[in-house]
Each structure stands twice: as structure tokens, then as C-alpha cells.
Amino acid sequence: MPELIFEKSRPGAGSFTAATGGVNFGGLEPRLPKRGLRTRPLGLPEVVEGEVVRHYLGLSTLNHHVDKDFYPLGSCTMKYNPKINDALALLPGFTGLHPAQPAAEAQGALTLLWELGEALKTISGMDAVTLQPVAGAHGELTALFMIRAYHEKLGRPRRKVIIPDAAHGTNPASIAMSGYEVVQVKSAADGCMDLEALKALLDEDVAAFMITNPNTVGIFERHIVEINALVHAVGALSYMDGANLNALLGIVKPGELGFDIMHINLHKTFSVPHGGGGPGAGPLVVKQRLAPFLPGPLPVRMGDQVVWGERGPDSIGPVHSYFGNFGALVRAYAYIRRLGARGLRRVSEYAILNANYVRVGLQDLYKVGFAGIPLHEVVFSAINQRRLGYKASHIAKRLLDFGLHAPTTYFPLIVPEALMVEPTETESRATLDRFIAAMRQIHRECEEKNPLLDSAPNTTPVRKLDDVRAVKQPRLRWRKEQD
Amino acid sequence: MPYIPHTEDDRREMLAAIGVARLEDLLESVPESLRLTHPLELAEPLSEAALTRHVGELAARNQPWPPQDCYLGGGAYVDHLPETVRSLAMRSEFITAYTPYQAEVSQGTLQTIFEFQTMVSELAGLELANASLYDGATALVEGVRMALAVKQDKEPARRRVLVAAQLNPRWLDVLRTYLHPLAAEVELELLGAGASRLSPEILAARLGVDVAVVVVQSPNALGLIEEVAPLAAAAHEAGALLVQGFDPLAVALFECPGEVGADIAVAEGQCLSQPLQFGGPFIGLFAARGDLAKYMPGRLIGETLDAVGARGYVLTFQTREQHIRREKATSNICTNQALVATFATIHLALLGPVGLREKAQSLYTRCAWLSERAAALPGLSLVGAGERFREFALHVPRRDAVLARMRAAGLAGGLPLPTELGAELLLVAVNELQEEADLQRWLDVLAAALREEGTHA
User: Fold this and answer.
1) Which terminus of chain A has a smaller tally of CB atoms within 10 A, N or C?
2) What residue numbers bound the domain in which A19 lies?
3) B291 touches chain A (CB under 8 A)
4) Model confidence at B44: pLDDT above 90
5) Which residues 25-84 of chain A have a CB within 8 Å of chain B?
6) HSE toward the beta carbon, residue B232, CA cutoff 13 A
């Protein structure tokens, strides 16, 4: 592996400001504080600009990324990220805008926020929106704060939130952070919600029910309307985790299914690049009865102007320093405007087509987790391969040798040896064929007990990394004395 | 159709392979009664050219201030970001990668963030730093939550959170939002309202065996450097932890959190990484004492070896995280601000220790020069005494009218502070693109505005 930037440091070699003709003191006599000065050395690297460029360019080439090749990570929606969206987000009229500038000086930005909010309401069938949350988990947490505020307003916050056992880990973590108890309900044999099990858990201490739809095995919850009615019958609210919204655009509106509140991952469904782990955006759309609890401030249209509405007395308050990840919101807006209604419906249709094409291409060798036609993603269980002595993780690592990214592994927890594949609509049939061929070859290798499976990955910039060592001998930062 | 590669033949043949006739047939699991019968009511699609024009027109309706005329701060700052940073960090390889779950094909992101953790740890002077949080406000929230978890593990009765009233008001608002649901177990108390700094005496009077954490920010919301060391000592004496908000540039000049005894340190990293862009993406920096690793929120990258003994990097200590620990996780953080961390890392690598210090000194110099002259204007007074960094708070009679006049003269003269911090206060932030002549113009315009408002004879 390459050296760390710190290992390339030579005293006196770096300093961008000195190298560019000295620091700009604006023509003033430089001054230093008289007291409270730092005495501890500041261990930043000293590397000249050209070497810094080579260092990070070199590092960048070690990444797999969606501009390079297939990224079938289930539940992550790694679709193509249009370049025009990045360019538009970087227009100086957006990047130079201070968040404290009054609305009159930010009409373009406020109009964009308002229009994006309206589009998300239309797509979701909901009544009100906040764009403040900057990630899916942040949206979930904001929703739970609102759910709590709603019940408090009615008299008491209630105690529990119900989730399926197949839920994303962020669901229970967010529930705990909002002061609620997590109650898990077992999935039925078909991978969907077990209605009877849910009924047994519902009572007037339940504040909300959270579900991903289509669920984490890619299947639409066919009893969802009935489920939501049961939830509402005990006075609880129904929350949809919108992580899998890429399956539903223009096909169903979650608001019409009875959901009260939903977050949307703009960095999944609406093509905002994932950035190696953010920045994303996790707006929340809600029904009217929850609107008073939204975090403020919210953009409001007044004639041909958009202004910041006053934060109402029931608002939970802000969840971000300003208005969320504005740069991500510009990208999502551009995406929606570029595609329009027909384009968005196509997105979901072709995402579903691609997932099912992979399903039929592999189902004779890899057991499909649950019967039926899944929507935008398909979950395989590597139990056939397990019998041959190989786990899902072997298959995942071996795929890397083919220049392909691995599917999501070991999730959802209800499928043993899970391999969750979400191709997205932007992959061509040729790419899917290449993935199917690689998976089929890997299955043959399992039958042949090919040693390349045990040593995989074999062709990556580093070989299989030792996770256990990372925990047992923790090194969470660089230190000189290590060498 | 944009971005979808399938030809008609592809579609037909793929449907045939699946064994259905039409795309609709794949929606079997969606009850027909629930399916939309009309297209979504959205605006017509735009070509890329038309989209460029449309969004370009929106951008043109904004009125960002030229850096030399912009004295707005309060947590979001004008800073020069070298072109090298943008050029490298905006590469496809960084932008279009996912969270580095498959470490062997994610070493670019992983090593970069490992370097980021090292840099944040150096800035804060604390052993540990995580891979980033959403922004300064949510980093503070996570710091307070972590400190509560550390203390309540052994002493569940420690439920009070003491917060210096001179905390960034936006951070305070977000902290209140997050702590409200825990109101039964956690009590937030503001200290020293009306003062310009938190004094050890005021803190001592409120400390007790039920206090878990003390929060102070330096430089504070008035731009003043706090004397954190005695506050930390007092907090520790009472068995509480100290969480410090810091500024990643100020620590190049002034004592860092680790030097003054902070247990956890958090900051807004926008000034190192991103343009203002209407408030986001920003980035939360988070550092803590070395013995608190198991309580850390968010992602951590660790160094390890591969199967043939070569060095490499992985996501580690994942047993703290939501996807393993679920409701017992230290935080719900999943997606964070990795790309923004990449910007910050490259920027800090370019600056080095000398460059960062020079940059900080250039802001310190401008702030000192301008604040002295502003205070000399008749009728105006500086809030607080002693050292400041980057911004200063000024009491300005008829503040809003004066500010409007400055605006009319082509200057964003400063940020009006909420009355909780004092009446008619103006927070003035300098930036490194301003020259002496620009600063002098601010003084002249302010003096003229004061004259026109008749605030002094």
C-alpha cells in the first residue's frame, strides 16, 4: 500500500501559503495573540503541492466506484450519477450564498428548495416536507422526534416503536435515540409482515410502526393498507423507510397506502453521488396532521416570492445548523427536472426489470431468499454454496477479482448467507450478463473447491484485510513511532 | 430516455428471459388497486441544455456577496479553498464510491479518511477522531450524548448538562431538539447568560454530583477565546466531563482542546473544506480521549494488515455501530460526510502546519486590526475583552437600520446576533480575501451609516 501523506512529510517542504508567494495579510502588519498560545506541535504533513496531487490521485485509483463499473450493493441504489447535476450544484450563485442571507437575496435557492419539496410531495403522495435531514438515518431520527412530539401533544409520548426483524440497523438505533423502546416483529415465511404477529403487539403504548416498503427482501408488502389501518386503530403512526423508493416512482404513492411519514434518500433514488459515505440527504415527507411538528424553518411561497416561514409552536426545532445539505438538494432537483414523470416511472420499471433479469439468471444456482417476483432488488441465500464449504463472504470477495463490486452481504438478517443484489436501472444488459457469468463461474469454483475462493480477493490493490487485527491492535490514527 | 441504457430489443428479450410479457407483469406483488393510473403531476422533462438554462437562472436569482464585501460568519465562513482541493476531491473515484464496506476495493477512501482522522486528532490534540459527522451542531449533540453515556454507565444519577450560554445559538437549538425526547433522563441548563464568557465561578456554583457534562465553545458565539483550562479542571473535580466546541483554524494559534483538558472536542469543519453553499454540505469534526473508543459515535477507520502482510485500512470497531448493535449502538450514524472529509484532508495536506498557522494568523491579524478600529468609532463598544478569533461582536445602536444602510452601500456588514446574547449586537467576521482597503471601507461605511442614523452627535 502507498505511504501515508505523513510519511511523505519533510520539514520545510510544504506549506501551500508560503509556496504561493506568502500568506495574505491584506497589507496589514502580522500579529500574534499574547496569551493562550498553542504549545503542542501540530502534526500535519509538510508536502509540496505537486506531491499532494500525486498522493491523492494515486489513492483515488484504489477505489471501486460507479463510474468505473457495476456496484450491485443491495439497498444502496448505486445508480449512475449524472455529471450535469454536479456542475449545476457548483454554480457560483449557489456556492457563494451565505446561509444567513435574507430570503430576498436567496430567491433562486429558496425557489429551488420549494420546488423540490413540492416534487417530493407529489412523488410520495404526502402533504408537507422538510429538506433539513442530511442522511437517511437523520431523516428517521427527525421523524421519530416528530412522532414523539405528536403523541406528547395528544397527552403522552407512548413507549414503544415496532419494527420488522428485517429492518435496517439505523431503525432501532434511531428509535433508541428518541427515547423509545424497540419491539421487533418476526417476518412471515414469505418475507412479508406477519399480520397476526403484528396484531398481537399493537396496543395503545405503541407510538409508531416503521417499515421499509418494498421491504428489505425487495418485496412489496401486499397487506400494507391493512397493516396501516391496524396501526392507526391503536392511535399509532405509520412510518415508511423510503430507502427502497427506487422501486415505486410513479407506480404507487406511499401517502395513498396510509403512511403518515416517510424519509427519502436522495443519495439513492435521486442520483446524488454517494461520495464514499456522504454527504447525502434524507428529506421527510408527512401527512398534514404531522406538518406542525416539522423542524423549521420551511420555505413558503408568497406570490412570486419564497420566504422562510416562522417556526410554529409545535415544531420539534432544527436538526441541522442550517437547511440541510443544500448541494445535494440541487442535484436531486436537477435529476427530477431532467426526467419528469415519465422518466421517473421508467427508472423504477427498469430497476425492477434489471433485478428480475439477475434473479432468473442465477436462481438455478443461488437460492432466492423468498418466492415471488421481487421489485428493484433480489436477495439470494448462498446456502447451496455453504454446503460446498463456502460462505456469502467468499463469493463477495471473489467477485472483486472480476472488477465488480460485491452485493450487500449478511443483510437482511432473516436470510441466511444473504447476498442482496440491487442492479439499478442504469446498468445495461451487457453488464448484467457479465455479473451473471461471474456469479455462475464462482459457483463452479465452489463445486471445484477452487483455492482462489479461499484466497480472494486476489487481484485487488490489497489482499484480504484482517478485520480482527484491526480491533485487537487498534490503530485509529498514524503515529511516527509506529515505524 | 436519459440514463437508461436499454434498447427495445433488450427490453423484449429480458422480459422473455424472465418469462413475462410486459413490464407491468413484474409488479405482481403490488396490488392493482394501489397502482397509480395517471402519471405523476410533475413538470415536463428538460433536455440537458434546457435544464442548464433553468437551474442557471435560479442560481442567477441569488445574490451572493463578493468575499471582500462579506462580513457574515456565525459558523459559516468565507475561506479560500485552493483549486487543487476541488480538482482532486471531485474525481469520480472519490465522488461515485459507496461507503467502504468492501475494504479491498476502497483503499482510496479508507486511507484518505484514516489520514483525516489523524489530522483531526492533531488539530484537537486528542487521541481519537472519527470519520466525520453531519455538521458542527450535530457533532456537539453526539459529543454530549457520548459524555452522558460515559458518565451514566457507572453513575446513572448524573443527568444534568451544563451549557455555556455563549454557545453558537444554532448549535444550542439543535442540542435542545435532540435532548427534548430524553427530558425524563437529561436536564439541560444554560450558564452565564448575559456574560461574554463562562467564568469558573459561575460554573462552580452550578456543578454537583448530578452533573454529567459541561459544554463550552472557544472561540465562542461572540468570537471570544474562552479560558477553558480552569473550566475543565472544575468539571473534572466535580466528576463531570468537558465537551469543547473548537475552531479548526483557531487551534493552529491558540491552545487546542487537548491542552486545556477537554475530554471530547467538536467543530464545524466547513472553513477547511466547503464553500458557503447556503449552509451545506458542512462537516462535523469529532475527537475524544483515547480511553473512550468504545463510546465513539460514527465511523472509525483502522489500520491492519492484509493476507500477505501489507498495510491496509478497514472500517473498524463496528460493534459500536447501528448495523451490528442496532438499538444498543452508540449512535444511528450511517451515511456521514466522507467526501467533505476528503476535501478537508487534501486541504490540510496542502497547508501543512506552517500554512495552517499562517492562515489562522492572517485572520487573527485582520480581526484584531478591525475590531480595535471599530471600537474607536463613537457610540460603539466591543463585547468582552481579551483574545478573539476571526470575528468580533459589537454593540451597535440602531443596529438593524445601520445594517440596512451598510447593505445599501454594498456591504454585508455583519450578522445580527439573537437578543439572548445581548441587545443590538452585530457579529463581524473577517476573511482572508479582504485587504486593508476593504476593511477600511467597512469602517467608513459603518461610520457613515451611524452618522446618517444620528446615533451620536
Assistant:
1) C
2) 5-28+41-60
3) no
4) yes
5) 25-47, 49, 52-53, 55-57, 59-68, 71, 73, 76, 78-82, 84
6) 20
Do residue A333 and residue A372 come from a single domain?
A: no
Domain end residue (candidates: B345, B362, B392): B345
What does the alpha-carbon distance between residue B173 and residue A317 come to, in Å, rounded to a whole number? 7
> Pick from A44, A339, A359: which is nearest to B2 by CB?
A339
Mean pLDDT of chain A: 95
- Give the pLDDT of residue A18: 62
Mean of pLDDT over chain B: 96
* A positions 133-162 inside 8 Å of B (CB): 134-138, 140-141, 144-145, 148-149, 157
Sequence-separated (6 or more) residues with CB below 8 Å from residue A134: A278, A279, A280, A281, A282, A320, A324, A325, A328, B134, B135, B280, B281, B337
d(CA A91, CA A274): 20
Question: Is B97 in Cβ contact with A63 (below 8 Å)?
Answer: yes
**Helix residue ranges, H only, B19-106:** 48-60, 83-89, 92-95
| Total residue count of chain A as it appears in this document | 483
Q: Cβ of A463 and B176 within 8 Å? A: no
- CB-based contact, B64 to chain A, within 8 Å: yes
pLDDT per residue over A299-348, tens digit each? 999 999 999 998 899 999 999 999 999 999 999 999 999 999 999 999 99
Residue keyed to cell 469558573: B200
Q: What is the pLDDT of residue B227?
A: 97
Identify the domain boundary among A338, A365, A382. Answer: A338
Residue A436, phi then psi, degrees to nearest 5 = -60, -45
Flag whether A69 is in a domain: no
Q: Do A279 and B55 touch (CB under 8 A)?
A: no
Distance CA(B265)–CA(B121), nearest Å, equals 10
**Residue A21: pLDDT over 70:** no
| Alpha carbon A208 to chain centroid, angstroms | 22
Backbone angles phi, psi at B452, to 5 degrees: -65, -30
Q: Are residues A361 and A334 located together in one domain of the fold?
A: no
How many angstroms away from the CA of B457 is the closest CA of chain A? 31
Chain B residue numbers with beta carbons less than 8 Å from the beta carbon of A105 are 62-63
Average the pLDDT over B330-339 and give the result: 87
B:104-133 residues touching chain A, CB 8 A cutoff: 104-109, 111-115, 117-119, 121-123, 125, 127-129, 131-132
- A30 to chain B: closest CA residue: B365
Distance CA B65, CA B59 (A): 13
Tell me: do A319 and A411 sit in the same domain: no
Q: Which of B322, B345, B368 is the last residue of a domain?
A: B345
Q: Do B301 and A476 touch (CB under 8 A)?
A: yes
CB pairs under 8 A between A and B: 700
Write down the pLDDT at residue A19. Answer: 57
Are B388 and B323 found together in one domain?
no
ipTM: 0.97
Q: Which residues of B touch A324 (CB under 8 A)?
A: 279-280
Q: Which residue of A has its CA nearest to B21?
A: A353
Taking the C-alpha atoms of residue A264 and residue A446, their distance in angstroms, rounded to an integer, is 39
Tell me, what CATH number does A401's domain have? Answer: 3.90.1150.10
Q: Say whether B21 sits in a helix, a strand or coil.
A: coil
Could you tell me the pLDDT band of residue A22, with boundaries at 50, 70 and 90? low
Sheet hosting strand B241-246, strand order edge to edge: B128-129, B284-288, B264-268, B241-246, B211-217, B160-164, B187-191
Contacts of B37 in chain A (CB under 8 A): none
> DSSP string of A100-137?
TS-GGGBHHHHHHHHHHHHHHHHHHT-SEEE----SHH
Residues in Cβ contact with A362 at an 8 Å cutoff, skipping those fewer than 6 apart: A380, A436, A439, A440
Interface test with chain A among B3, B133, B148, B357, by most A beta carbons within 10 Å: B3
